[in-house]
Write a structure and sequence with these properties.
Blueprint lengths: L31 E5 L10 E3 L2 H8 L11 H4 L7 H10 L6 E5 L18 E2 L13 E9 L12 E10 L5 E7 L4 E4 L2 E4 L3 E5 L3 E2 L6 E5 L7 E5 L9 H4 L22 E6 L1 H6 L7 E7 L12 E2 L11 E3 L15 E7 L5 H5 E9 L10 E8 L9 E8 L9 H5 L3 E5 L4 E5 L9 E5 L1 H4 L9 E5 L3 E2 L2 E8 L5 E5 L21 E4 L2 E4 L8 E4 L22 E2 L38 E2 L4 E3 L3 E3 L6 E3 L10 H4 L2 H6 L5 E4 L30 H11 L11 E3 L6 H14 L3 E4 L25 H11 L6 E5 L2 E4 L6 E4 L1 H15 L8 H4 L11 E4 L5 H9 L3 E6 L3 E4 L15 H18 L9 H20 L3 E7 L7 H5 L6 E6 L22
Parallel strand pairs: 1-3, 1-38, 6-31, 32-37, 38-39, 39-40, 40-44
Antiparallel strand pairs: 2-3, 4-16, 5-6, 5-15, 6-14, 7-10, 7-11, 7-12, 8-9, 10-29, 11-15, 12-13, 17-18, 17-25, 18-24, 19-20, 19-37, 20-21, 22-23, 25-34, 26-33, 27-28, 27-31, 29-30, 35-36, 41-42, 41-43, 44-45, 46-47
């Protein structure tokens, strides 16, 4: 302290106390990064969570695998998601936050077509060229029956009821009594039409109870017939009858027994529309047709080879501020739309949006009104909302603090493949966990009428239908069921859209015939859209103003039970299609299936019942037409609900674990393997130490050598993290290969082979470590036993070691490495292979840390080596973690003198910051001694001239005891112990 700080008035001795023993405030706690799959959450973006409860809120709970059920509709949970267990193991210790990178399928911009470089999935091949065996997508379209069934004419519109995805070599044929009459003329031969036929393009009648029969060729190794209906309370319900597990179409014996192998699966089905059309349990007519767009080869629902894609809403539109006729909702101003922040297919399968509390301005100071946006659970209903997130008092005023983009956020991240990092765009930070806002540029610029309010939305896109289906011959002697137009379904066999213009393949006994049996049938086919609320009284609401018009997710209009088919209406239509909902369509795809607006709300006479009828505003019968748009709002009908659509995870749903090691080729690149590219990109997002703080990197379950080496390289280049990697073939779960019931096939290597393989890799880095073998845990939610890689357990051991002692204590031994005693943070019950003393020696000599099982002591981590081959203090995990800790802490402390004057006073300040940290580490047994040198011998005049402060910090790490040597000396009775 300077003498100027003393006050001298009269003579005396003046003493001031200076306490330099304060321990500086530590930097923010730093935790690991874990890369893996999860049920939900932002994908391919590092997200930090502070606790396991926060992790569950964002990403969902642990997933033990083998969930079974309707995988096609509800998602793939067939393999354990090891990353979720690693997160739980670490966060249960509550020592530091954890950053999670949820995997979603990605592909390189130069991915090689026809290889595994493309993400997603497809069913082969082109259903337009050979409908008998080329696989693809088949749809069942149904009409309501009339008194003429099964005779000549079926008036009305047929709607898609179900979709099958079929591998190459198979097809779907509809069987039944033919609707129509006539004969077949081929050359000079005329054949009478058989009353019972089966085939593609043949219109047949259902039974009186509404049951159809189809034959799938190649199913279970041979053709199989299935009789089914649409009543989900019956055992004949189509989702109970047909295979709904896409993984059973993988090559026989790959993941499941060959007897379980299928060549198809039932995809989307549209029960809500079937109920609304009274087609459940009643007689109908139907036709099976391939679904595909034009081109060679044809594209369509069977081809979803693409990276993950975000769900979004259609554009939200304004009310009509004009008076008079000529109204159309499509001419209303687009205001904004909501896009998912990285959830893939989860968002549209689980969430919906309600815009509510829409109010005209009540202020003299602003012409802008207000509204609320509520993210709701898809399965709730208006009488019992489950709010996931809400934003109130929003405005379209770009100068307001309540501007919708400002309050919700408009930032989004995009991957820069050249720089290998995420780049962020947008003006306002995201406040929503689920969405960001895309504004109409005119609204954002304040160039639109301030009176505009959210009043409706564009519905999601859908495949184009046809209104003029007919029969014809093209070419001669081949008949077709096709559309004469080119608006989606038609153009005949060469036109765009759904290819009904294909040769109708009819089987009569064992003889294939071309059939004209439907020659008298005309009609329309459409693709369905979700139901919109028709009346405010639907659902038995005690207060009808609670009703939100727009999308309705219940089984029937008057029901409150969720209809699980709703999400099927909003799935991704085809590869590469991300538009729709007001963003534009494509050939054969309508930009929107409907446009909803509150301007179409009507009042039932003088009653308080309000209802929605499409076109009523244009027809002059709506409430807003007769008065003002505000009349609808003041009546209390100030809300509407809209869906998300088009999300996609980018995964191959035909395998239990879409990120499995066995799916990576032997010489992988970003271009020839989507799985390799996805793992590598996820790790590269955390490679920049200035962007992501971490002290460990774990990729549980990943064993591909090139990728685990990449994880170690990232940590070494950052020089502040330890990579925990898993070794190949130590344990092979069912998601890697089928075991034929012989569990010995699960063990793919031995300690000796694993040791040799690791030595041959020559990793040689103190920034990585590995363990052997796998361990078994019990999933605490389901009670299911799950084999997990050792990386998962070690995440818990490292965390509990830090909590009980410090990062520089060895995460091994009975005190801190006792897995049976709970050191892993999750229960550990067994090891996949019990190691002998010789096995442990073999592994440890190769820098593989054994996990030992002792009859009396339980399961214990029995080693703590890094992968460094040369002997030094850094070949132990505790020392490597000590040095990482010190470098990280000192780096943070050093920033406090950055850009200060390079003088003695600053050097003293630096030492006062760092020395207490070193002294405290010594006190806690991290180091045995240290020395900090910062003076003229280190920071020399020439360094000062270069703006450099140079200090030396020397530490002696405390070593852990790994070997105890004791001599037992047996002495003669008369011998002296002093000898």
């Amino acid at each position: 302290m300077s003498v100027k700080n003393f006050k001298f008035v009269s003579p005396g001795v003046f003493i001031n106390e200076i306490d330099n023993s304060f321990i500086p405030r530590s930097a923010e706690a730093i935790g690991p990064v874990v890369v893996g799959r999860a049920q939900r959450g932002l994908g391919m973006t590092p997200i930090k969570v502070e606790s396991y409860s926060e992790f569950v809120e964002m990403f969902g709970d642990t997933v033990p695998g083998s969930s079974g059920g309707d995988i096609s509709r509800y998602g793939n949970f067939q393999s354990p998601m090891y990353g979720t267990y690693a997160a739980k193991a670490f966060l249960n210790a509550n020592v530091a936050p954890l950053t999670y990178v949820r995997l979603l399928g990605q592909q390189d911009s130069a991915a090689e077509a026809g290889t595994a470089g493309l993400a997603g999935w497809e069913t082969l091949n082109d259903p337009l060229n050979d409908i008998t065996s080329s696989g693809g997508t088949y749809g069942l379209f149904v009409w309501n029956a009339s008194s003429s069934v099964p005779n000549n004419v079926l008036p009305g519109t047929g709607s898609l009821a179900a979709v099958w995805y079929v591998n190459s070599g198979s097809a779907v044929y509809l069987s039944g009594t033919v609707c129509g009459s006539g004969s077949i003329t081929t050359g000079s031969n005329t054949f009478a039409v058989s009353p019972i036929q089966e085939g593609v393009g043949v219109v047949v009648a259902s039974t009186a109870a509404g049951l159809f029969t189809v034959r799938v060729t190649g199913a279970q190794g041979a053709s199989s017939k299935f009789t089914f209906g649409f009543d989900d309370s019956q055992e004949t319900f189509m989702r109970k009858v047909f295979n709904t597990n896409p993984q059973l179409t993988s090559p026989a014996g790959t993941f499941y027994p060959s007897v379980s192998h299928k060549t198809y699966w039932l995809g989307e089905s549209y029960e809500q529309t079937l109920r609304d059309n009274s087609q459940v349990g009643s007689q109908m007519a139907g036709v099976v047709l391939p679904i595909a767009l034009g081109g060679t080869p044809g594209t369509g629902p069977h081809d979803k080879r693409q990276a993950s894609q975000e769900g979004k809403t259609g554009w939200v539109i304004s009310q009509d501020l004009e008076s008079g006729t000529g109204y159309s909702p499509e001419s209303m101003t687009k205001l904004f739309q909501l896009k998912g922040r990285g959830h893939g297919g989860w968002l549209h399968k689980n969430c919906k949006v309600t815009i509510e509390r829409i109010k005209k301005t009540a202020l003299s100071t602003s012409d802008y009104g207000t509204f609320s946006i509520v993210i709701r659970r898809l399965s709730d209903h208006d009488g019992a909302q489950e709010v996931m997130e809400r934003f109130d008092l929003l405005s379209l005023d770009p100068t307001s603090v309540n501007f919708v983009a400002r309050k919700i956020g408009d930032r989004y991240a995009s991957w820069d493949a050249t720089a290998r990092r995420l780049k962020e765009y947008g003006d306002y930070p995201n406040q929503s966990k689920f969405v960001y806002v895309v504004m109409n540029s005119d609204v954002e610029a304040g160039a639109t009428d301030p009176a505009m309010l959210p009043f409706g939305y564009y519905g999601p896109p859908r495949f184009s239908g046809s209104t003029d289906l007919q029969t014809g011959s093209y070419p001669a002697e081949n008949t077709y069921f096709y559309s004469g137009s080119t608006n989606g379904l038609g153009g005949g066999p060469a036109g765009p859209g759904l290819k009904t213009g294909l040769s109708s393949y009819v089987l009569s006994g064992a003889v294939a015939q071309q059939s004209a049996s439907f020659k008298d049938i005309t009609g329309s086919l459409i693709f369905p859209s979700v139901r919109l609320r028709a009346s405010s009284s639907d659902g038995g609401l005690s207060d009808p103003t609670v009703a939100a018009f727009g999308m309705q997710t219940t089984r029937t209009a008057t029901d409150t039970t969720f209809d699980s088919s709703v999400a099927d209406y909003h799935n991704l239509l085809k590869k590469g299609f991300s538009a729709g909902g007001g963003d534009g369509g494509a050939t054969g795809i309508d930009d929107f299936s409907y446009v909803f607006t509150l301007d179409d709300v009507c009042q039932s006479g003088s009653t308080t019942t309000y209802f929605w009828r499409s076109g009523s505003r244009g027809g002059g019968t709506s409430v807003s037409y007769s008065g003002s748009y505000d009349d609808v709002l003041t009546a209390g009908y100030d809300s509407f609900t809209m869906p998300f659509f088009g999300g996609f995870d980018g995964f191959d749903e035909k395998v239990p674990d879409p990120m499995y090691n066995g799916g990576i080729p032997s010489s992988p690149t970003n271009q020839n393997s989507s799985i390799y590219n996805t793992w590598r990109r996820a790790m590269d997002t955390v490679a920049d130490p200035e962007a992501i703080n971490m002290n460990m990197l774990a990729t549980p379950g990943l064993t591909k050598e090139g990728l685990t080496a990449h994880a170690v390289n990232i940590c070494e280049e950052r020089a502040d993290s330890l990579a925990l990697i898993d070794l190949p073939s130590v344990y092979l779960p069912g998601s890697e290969q089928y075991d034929s019931g012989d569990r010995s096939n699960r063990i793919g290597t031995t300690p000796a082979l694993a040791s040799t393989a690791l030595r041959n890799r020559r990793v040689d880095s103190s920034y990585g470590c590995t363990f052997y073998p796998w361990v078994q845990t019990r999933d605490e939610n389901t009670g299911r036993l799950v084999w997990i890689p050792p990386t998962v357990a070690m995440m818990g051991v490292l965390a509990s070691t830090e909590r009980a002692a410090a990062v520089w204590f060895a995460p091994a031994g009975f005190n801190r490495g006792g897995l049976t005693e709970g050191a892993a943070g999750i229960p550990i019950l067994h090891v996949s292979e019990r190691l002998t003393s010789k096995n442990r020696d073999t592994l440890y000599e190769a820098n593989i840390n054994p996990i030992a099982s002792f009859p009396s002591s339980g399961i214990v981590v029995f080693g703590q080596k890094t992968l460094q081959e040369r002997q030094s203090a850094l070949d132990r995990i505790n020392v490597r973690r000590l040095v990482i800790f010190l470098k990280k802490q000192i780096s943070v402390l050093s920033t406090r003198v950055l850009f200060e004057q390079n003088v003695q006073a600053t050097w003293t300040r630096f030492k006062n910051l760092v020395e207490p940290l070193l002294a405290n580490t010594k006190t806690q047994y991290g180091i045995t001694d240290y020395r900090l040198i910062l003076d003229e011998t280190t920071t020399t005049p020439d360094l000062i001239d270069q703006n450099i402060l140079y200090a030396k910090i020397m530490v002696k790490p405390a070593r852990a005891i790994e070997y105890i040597a004791i001599d037992f000396v047996i002495m003669r009775t008369g011998a002296s112990f002093d000898d």
